[in-house]
Amino acid sequence: MNRPIDNQHVLDINALPSPRAIKTKLPITDEAAALVVETREAIRRILHGQDRDRLLVIVGPCSIHDPEAAYEYAAKLKPVAETLRDRLLIVMRTYFEKPRTTVGWKGLINDPHLDGTYDIAAGMELARTILLKINQSGMPCATELLDPISPQYIADLISWSAIGARTTESQTHRELASGVSMPVGFKNGTEGSLQVAVNAMTSARAPHHFVGINAEGQSSIIRTAGNPDRHIVLRGGGGKTNYEAEHVAKAEAAVAGEGIARSIMIDCSHDNSSKDHKRQSLVARDVLRQFREGRHSIMGLMLESNLNPGKQSWKQGVTLAHGVSITDACLGWDETAALLNELADSIAAKPA
């Protein structure tokens, strides 16, 4: 019998450096660790109702593809976050893995050189380098957990994470969320299903046993205690929006038994903006109106923003414009800064 039984369609298998090896090479600093701990606790206080006056805002590029542009964005965001901190808890989007409906660039970890070489080892190290530098600058970071192995390499530098619309229904990602150390937001399904996100919240609260890796990169049995810090992210679906008051009320009722005082975040992009980045501001203003009028279950919102507005198409070998998204279209920085200040002013004017 000449035909192999295993790996018939596998071209190559290369070992990845262990999480311990990369963390030893790029150790978290005391300053970065303190910021992560402080931000995670601040988010928990918002979630569980000890902090009822502030909103969590996850804002930044749809995906990181250029480290220098990411550092420049963080440098612009930091003073705004500091100025508005009594009304908004601002955390920067630092997304390194992108789920694709079919095929396409899957993010900086998967293809860091944007040249089809798929140097994942370099991508993992680069992602950790970016997170270290941004955290050390004083700006906390958020990301989407996509590959179940990646968190072993970078999760200590993440203050908030999302489980995306394509993976909220995945048992693997629910198990993963049950063990991570930061608060997690579950997006509703791509077709708009709210129940999959509710089910995910319930599942992630429970203990789980599953196969993963340890710090040495060895296959291991992971046993988790369950994550008490979970919420829903409404992002629209199936071409329809779900940020309006009736949808927020429905989501609030659906998770009433989860014991989360402020359980709903609104993603102002994706189907909620009809995939028009310019409409994110309209969505954000409506969410703030609801919050001001007493919808206290709203804990935050998400904005896709970059140095410059819109998006560009990435093609191998073509020079890219600086600070423009190569995935979803984003708000530009000037509009973002103005919107964040407007939102903070609106919160300051909220009736008691």
TrEMBL record:
It catalyses: D-erythrose 4-phosphate + phosphoenolpyruvate + H2O = 7-phospho-2-dehydro-3-deoxy-D-arabino-heptonate + phosphate. Keywords: Amino-acid biosynthesis, Aromatic amino acid biosynthesis, Transferase. Belongs to the class-I DAHP synthase family. GO terms for molecular function: 3-deoxy-7-phosphoheptulonate synthase activity; identical protein binding. This is Phospho-2-dehydro-3-deoxyheptonate aldolase. Pathway: Metabolic intermediate biosynthesis; chorismate biosynthesis; chorismate from D-erythrose 4-phosphate and phosphoenolpyruvate: step 1/7. It comes from Nitrospira lenta. The keyword Hydrolase does not apply. GO terms for biological process: amino acid biosynthetic process; aromatic amino acid family biosynthetic process; chorismate biosynthetic process. The keyword Secreted does not apply. Residues 41-339 form the DAHP synthetase I/KDSA domain. One of its GO terms (cellular component) is cytoplasm. Its EC number is 2.5.1.54. Signal peptide: none annotated. Stereospecific condensation of phosphoenolpyruvate (PEP) and D-erythrose-4-phosphate (E4P) giving rise to 3-deoxy-D-arabino-heptulosonate-7-phosphate (DAHP).
